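User: Sequence in, structure out. Go.
Assistant: Echoing your sequence, followed by the structure tokens.
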Amino acid sequence: MGISVVEDHYRIERVLLSHPEGATIADLVELTGIPKQTLRNHLATMLEHGRAERLDAFAWAPTTQWIMAILREAAQDADQLRSRASRAGVTPLSHNPEATPCHNAHRAPDPSDPA
């Protein structure tokens, strides 16, 4: 399997996941730039692996099972990061009462402000 095939597959996955309500083949072709028959071949593989489901003759969507697996994996990754941070003595900002918000840090100081 060539790199372009893998890239096509990941591109289709990303687009399909960004349309959990489903997308037509025509939409997927337009959004990915992948030829229709190639797209159909990838969708068939995703169907076999439980990642995509056919909604009707023209539309496909990611399976709930696949979305839940991605969310579980993200939660596990977050838990691992929190654990590593804790072992390193780092306190997340959301749990650090001494942390100050920096939502205006990108703004230049106001020259009329005496402080």
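User: And one key feature?
Assistant: The first helix runs from residue 3 to 17.
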